[in-house]
Specification:
The strands form 2 sheets. A 12-stranded antiparallel beta barrel has the order 1-2-3-4-5-6-7-10-11-12-13-14. A two-stranded antiparallel sheet has the order 8-9. The chain has 5 helices and 14 strands. It is globular and about 50 Å long. Helix content is 22%, strand content 41%.
């Protein structure tokens, strides 16, 4: 048998050995490879981990504390720092209209001070429609809100919301099977949407992300690295996340109560437990 005939014979045997069932699945396998290709390319092209974000210049005296878990009630989770804790319970509901499904996530929270004294209570909900409490223009085709309402407090003095991207789902159908994908959360334009705003005791605060990890096919449940918290244009705090944990990390906060110590803890811990929609793994559960 000549070389060209031998090569053809080996190719025929290779494809034939896959069997008819495997050959039917080849289009699906190829589609999955194509869907994962951008993430694989990003992972392969990344030679080293991104450097940590620079430490902001604080306008007040600050200290840095470790975030720990907190004693929580039935079906609650909790995080604590500086003698203060945030306990919360998550519920998810969904509804369908024609072919469109809408999910709603709610974090009901209790914010406790020293000796578990109640400070604030309320709920934070991911909203795809409605109006910003801060008068900020947003387009629900590209943006949704994580809006927090504080019980028995006027919204003009106590309120918090975070602008989040409204990730769009796209579908692909092959051989009677469907594959769902979502937008590339590594896109700087999508990452730029993220910004938190809060009014606490009448003082205004902002939270901006310190950075983002790259999305890869094996990314976990946390993409945002943390936030810097700003009051009147000056950095007064910072939270650094530890992986996907909602009970670990570090928190930099004002030493003095008059510089917004309680407000910084409240905002930071709420950002810690807020779902990270930049993570595909989180979006799949909603």
């Amino acid at each position: 048998m000549q070389r060209s005939e031998a090569n053809a014979y080996r190719r025929d045997r290779t494809w034939g050995s896959l069997g008819p069932d495997m050959l039917k699945k080849l289009p699906l396998i190829l589609a999955l490879v194509l869907l994962q290709a951008p993430g694989l390319a990003q992972a392969a092209g990344r030679k080293a981990a991104a450097p940590p974000p620079p430490v902001p210049v604080y306008g007040v005296a600050v200290e840095t504390l470790e975030i720990t878990g907190a004693k929580a009630g039935f079906m609650e989770m909790g995080a604590a720092a500086g003698g203060t804790s945030l306990l919360y319970r998550t519920t998810i509901s969904s509804s369908s209209v024609l072919t469109k499904t809408r999910s709603k996530l709610t974090n009901s929270f209790r914010f406790l001070g020293a000796g578990e004294a109640p400070l604030q209570a309320g709920k934070c909900t991911i909203k795809t429609d409605g109006r910003s409490m801060f008068g900020v223009e947003w387009n629900q085709l590209t943006t949704q809100l994580y809006a927090c309402e504080i019980k028995d407090r006027p919204a003009d003095t106590y309120a918090m919301e975070v602008a989040l991207p409204a990730f769009k789902q796209t579908g692909l159908s092959l051989g009677g099977m469907s594959i769902s994908t979502s937008g590339d959360s590594n896109d700087p334009a999508i990452q730029a949407i993220l910004r938190g705003r809060m009014t606490y005791g009448g003082a205004k605060y902002e939270a901006v992300p310190t950075g983002f990890d790259q999305i890869t096919p094996i990314s976990g449940r946390r993409v945002v690295q943390g936030y810097v918290i700003i009051r009147n244009g000056t950095a007064v705090g910072r939270i650094v996340f530890q992986g996907a944990s909602t009970t670990k990390g570090s928190l930099t906060l004002p030493v003095s109560a008059t510089d917004g110590r309680e407000a910084v803890i409240f905002m930071a811990l709420n950002l810690l437990v807020m779902p990270d929609l930049y993570s595909p793994a989180v979006r799949e559960t909603m």
